[in-house]
Specification:
This protein has one domain: P-loop containing nucleotide triphosphate hydrolases (Rossmann fold, 3-Layer(aba) Sandwich). The chain has a seven-stranded mixed β-sheet with strand order 1-3-4-2-5-6-7, with helices on both faces. The chain is 34% helix and 22% strand. The chain contains five helices and seven strands; from the N terminus they run ββαββαβαβαβα. The longest helix is centred in the last third of the chain and has 16 residues. The chain is of the alpha/beta class. The structure holds guanosine-5'-triphosphate and magnesium ion. Magnesium ion binds next to α1.
């Protein structure tokens, strides 16, 4: 599958403001700075559709993009961002969780994990919550360009192993780099395969 056109649809912090979309929606979530907004730009072939930053905590709203007039990509704020007040963090988490649970709008959530690190407790807690809420998800390892081929294979195997201790069968796994475009085709084809099953 290829994306021909993507445009900004809405940005909000109030989940209730967002109508349950009639269109299918694929959302991107993960720890702050893991590369969600960069991945969305890479998938859409646009440099500045979603705002990115080297400073964690850039995305603070639920940002939605309309793709090819037919489906929606959602850029969510990162979880676990340490440099905000407890109150602000709790509000952000409530917003993210409220949004994610607002099925049936959500078709699939891509949970991004930095390929360089072992599975963190905060990611595991998040995945377990998704399991409890029965939110369908796939896992995406980001920033693959930062590792050598051997290190990437080792990390990927180790992360699969960690996740498989909690999920059987293993959720779909992807490895991407927004810098080199690795994994773009696989991810888009996967989205395409889910969409073609439904329509
Ligand atoms: P928040 O919105 O703050 O939660 O962050 P985010 O997950 O949207 O991350 P963002 O896309 O803003 O990227 C964070 C930083 O990582 C930026 O400096 C990006 O340039 C860098 N980055 C993202 N993806 C990649 C990648 O695939 N490779 C490399 N080398 N850097 C990346
Ligand atoms: Mg972001």
């Amino acid at each position: 599958m290829e994306i021909k056109e993507a445009s900004f649809l809405s940005a909000t912090t109030n989940v209730d403001e967002i109508p349950i979309p009639e269109l299918e929606e694929f959302a991107f979530i993960g720890r702050s700075n893991v590369g969600k907004s960069s991945l969305i730009n890479m998938l859409c072939n646009r440099r500045k559709l979603a705002h990115t930053s080297s400073t964690p905590g850039k995305t603070q709203c639920i940002n939605r993009f309309l793709v090819d007039q037919g489906w929606i990509i959602t850029d969510l704020p990162g979880y676990g961002f340490a440099k905000v007040s407890k109150t602000k963090r709790a509000a952000l988490e409530a917003m993210i969780n409220g949004y994610i649970r607002r099925a049936p709008g959500m078709t699939l959530l891509f949970v991004l994990l930095d390929a360089r690190h072992p599975l963190q407790q905060i990611d595991l807690d998040f995945l377990i919550r998704l399991g409890n809420w029965q939110v369908p998800f796939a896992i995406v390892l980001t920033k693959s360009d930062k590792l050598s081929k051997t290190a990437l294979e080792r990390q990927s195997a180790s992360l699969r192993e960690s996740v498989s201790q909690y999920w059987d069968p293993l959720p779909p796994f992807f490895v991407v780099s927004s810098l080199t475009g690795e994994g773009r085709k696989e991810l888009l084809d996967y989205i395409g395969s889910i969409r073609s099953k439904k329509f």
